[in-house]
Design a protein that fits this description.
Blueprint lengths: L20 H16 L5 E4 L6 H6 L14 E2 L2 E2 L6 H16 L5 E4 L21 H11 L22
Parallel strand pairs: 1-4
Antiparallel strand pairs: 2-3
């Protein structure tokens, strides 16, 4: 490796909000090198995914699909940002990450839920966490999970028994 070059450690802030001295040193050097070349560097945040470690540390805040499964969809591991404690912790994590480096800005990229097939694929239909379901129940008068229950009178788009 050429002298003065930095070898990129595994991962990066795009996968980890948590501080890591080796990754952070590399990232600071990368940002500085970019700035010397008049290149702007933005933090890229893809909420409701936070990080692998956040997912592991907080199973109680994981987003749920319409089937009640943890919403680990493709590479993204979605968190329940409707939960006030989760939202507060995510906000603090993002603030720390943004404040730790000389970013030129922050890109809140792709803030969405993984429901590309809509209600026809309940294994990917989000958000269906307890906070969202309670809020919907309060305004809509029923639990939105009933929309995916074939025995329910509120079933969506499927043949009802009887």
């Amino acid at each position: 490796m050429a002298q003065g070059r930095h070898r990129r450690p595994a991962g990066g802030r795009w996968h980890f909000h948590e501080a890591d001295p080796a990754r952070d040193k590399y990232l600071d050097a990368l940002i500085e090198a970019c700035h010397k070349q008049a290149i702007l560097v933005y933090a890229w945040v893809e909420l409701p995914h936070v990080s692998e470690q956040f997912w592991l540390d907080h199973p109680e805040w994981r987003e749920k699909t319409a089937l009640g499964q943890d919403a680990h969809l493709d590479w993204r591991k979605l968190m329940n940002l409707a939960n006030p404690d989760c939202a507060r912790a995510v906000s603090e994590s993002v603030r720390r990450m943004v404040g730790a480096h000389d970013w030129d800005g922050v890109n809140l990229a792709e803030l969405y839920f993984e429901s590309l097939q809509g209600h026809s694929n309940p294994s990917r239909f989000t958000p269906m966490n307890t906070d969202i379901r309670a809020e919907f129940r309060k305004t809509g008068g029923f639990d939105p999970a009933e929309l995916f229950d074939a025995a329910s009178p509120t079933t969506m788009g499927r043949t009802r028994p009887g």
